[in-house]
Automatic annotation (TrEMBL):
InterPro entries: Nuclease_put_TT1808, Restrct_endonuc-II-like, Uma2
Organism of derivation: Streptomyces lydicamycinicus
Residue intervals of the Putative restriction endonuclease domain: 18-187
A matching Pfam family: Uma2
Protein name, per record: Putative restriction endonuclease domain-containing protein
Length: 193
């Protein structure tokens, strides 16, 4: 009698990840895998994109270090043991231009080298305020900038450690928000009003 090798049975998380990666969404919709749940979001409204544009313009013009900016770039973030990695699509991913992180990157790239991610709240702000913040902290992304439309404030989370960021700096719309190195400028939010 001969022994036959068998493929290991896929786990629930393997099946979830495989299903997520095969998911097709309508044009303009985004699918993300966040803390073991699939989230599908509709295309953003004009105000959402306006806030991103205001951040983008200042980062490109005023940063102490030349930056690259990618809107809606897929990132794979580490997760707690036993769960599939988060697959998120930040509204903006920013990295030092010298690293050229986006050139040749796969659709879902690791977050190594990313200097800051930006999210603008949408119809389900809890995801941006909590779940994504925890994922970005776990991945060690140094800065997370949250433009919170409901609260009319911009929040900068910095110094990731474990599941969260150690520092939080909030500026209401209309007040400047200091961005540390490698940006090293005050983000002006007067146009956010």
């Amino acid at each position: 009698m001969t022994a036959m090798a068998h493929e290991p049975m896929p786990t629930q998380d393997d099946i979830l990840l495989e299903g997520f990666l095969a998911l097709e969404t309508p044009t303009g919709f985004r699918a993300e895998l966040i803390e073991g749940e699939i989230a599908v979001t509709p295309p953003p409204d004009g105000d959402h994109e306006d806030y991103l544009s205001l951040v983008f313009e200042q980062v490109m013009r005023m940063s102490a270090t030349a930056m690259q900016f990618s809107g809606h770039k897929g990132l794979v973030l580490s997760h707690a043991a036993g769960q599939p990695a988060d697959h998120v699509i930040p509204d903006a991913t920013i990295a030092p231009r010298a690293l050229r992180l986006f050139r040749g990157a796969p659709p879902w790239m690791p977050s190594d080298g990313v200097a800051m991610v930006v999210e603008v709240t949408s119809s389900k702000p809890h995801k941006d305020r909590v779940a994504k913040r925890h994922g970005y902290a776990r991945a060690g992304i140094p800065l997370y900038l949250l433009v919170d439309r409901d609260k009319s404030a911009v929040t900068l989370f910095s110094e990731p450690e474990g599941e969260d960021y150690l520092n939080t700096h909030i500026a209401p719309f209309g007040k400047p928000l200091p961005l540390p190195a490698p940006f090293s400028f005050d983000l002006e939010t007067a146009d956010f009003l």
